[in-house]
């Protein structure tokens, strides 16, 4: 096995520990917090998080992707990028503090006026970690990132639970996020072996000039994506209340746990790996195809299984007070079924350094999103999510266009290669629906039975039919 292959294998493992471990731990902690707190309190933290996440993305300014994509960044370039991130973090944190009265007025929630300045601190803390994290990612060094993320989630989660149990309400969620970001940032900087490259030496801002085109395109594209993603939450909270916003965000978080954990693991390894293959089109196309088959093989059954088990799972984990989120969760799963295709196709452009095309695609998709939201908002939250499903389907054709042009990897080929996993997943899903109808037992038993049955049926069929994706995954594990 080559050095690059070994690095990629280790990267997959530690990236999975980071993404799956931290998200699983965060999910468990949020389940416990949801049992102690109310949907409206989660709606409050979700309302301010909309602005915090957008500001954090702007503070990053595309630097992480630019550093990973660049073949041999110099020390002076790294220092300049770190300083630029820091300046953006400070400026955006202060701006968010100044806008706290507007945030409170927008949602008609006076509590947000006091919460927003504290949450703005998250933006500054995050900006400190962008460059060291990118340096470790470009070297496929995911182990220290996994350690930092896991400890941050566990320690901050423990703090949040303690505060919630003591009656601090929504402030338990505020301090959990601030503490978690602070702990992770300190550990990422401390564990980065190249920290001397950005902490010591003269800062020359002109050194970022070579990154401006790529990072500028990624910043604009990321800004559009963040604004439009958060626009849905903004509309839900403003029109339907913070209680509905809490249900909306909890449903989205539960859907994202299985689907985006896998996707995040894949992209963190695929991006630096595919960037190294950017001069070998045939090798890159083969690697992209293998990544898509593997992602769909794992994500399809998880998505379909979650749709079937949604109602008993929500009631079991969060209690009946969160029952209103079940339909939102099922619809989010439908919207996310095509996520692996979006992820892989867009990663091709990033790896090839075509941030201009990436930006062009994002603009086209945001036009579709704006059109969908302008039509669906008046019909309720379910209609809004149906609009997101429609945009996901239409955007797939936009995303796949350049993969066909640059790699000869058309959407029809992508569908053909992943169709077996989709069909086997549908058979599994239909089997679970029939089994669920026969079960008249407590949710404590129903959920594990359905999960175990689904896994057994899917793996059994995949092995019996010798699906290509299944065989490839087995081979990669040897």
TrEMBL record:
Keywords from the named record: Cell membrane, Membrane, Transmembrane, Transmembrane helix
GO cellular component: plasma membrane
InterPro entries reported for this sequence: Poly_Biosynth_Transport (IPR050833)
Compartment(s) where it occurs, according to its Swiss-Prot or TrEMBL record: Cell membrane
Protein topology in the membrane: Multi-pass membrane protein
Keyword Nucleotide-binding attached: no
CDD domains per the UniProt record, alphabetical: MATE_tuaB_like
Spans through the membrane: 43-68, 80-103, 115-135, 147-171, 231-249, 295-319, 325-349, 370-398, 418-435, 447-465
Keyword flag Ribonucleoprotein: no
Any Pfam family: Polysacc_synt_3
Family label: Belongs to the polysaccharide synthase family.
The protein, known as: Lipopolysaccharide biosynthesis protein
Organism: Pelagicoccus mobilis
